[in-house]
Fold this sequence. Notes:
Elements: H1 2-33, E1 53-57, E2 72-76
Antiparallel strand pairs: 1-2
Bound molecules: zinc ion.
Amino acid sequence: MPGNDDAARRLVEQARREREERERGYRERALKLFPHVCGRCGREFEGRRLKELTVHHRNGDHDFNPPDGSNWELLCKNLPY
Ligand SMILES: [Zn+2]
């Protein structure tokens, strides 16, 4: 049924947008909270290279984002931790 397909697509699209907004939010907060240094190898990231630094969730739950940053760790994006 085309109507149902549309509704399902809208739901998927809405969930994707909300996830992207949430990720932008915690990334900005983590970058304000912590020095821009990889927590594993100590590399520093500045300016345009800052996008190579990713926010890792220590407990693996991307929905668990306490304001004190205790579930976050900044890591090199391209290294397999
Ligand atoms: Zn690193």
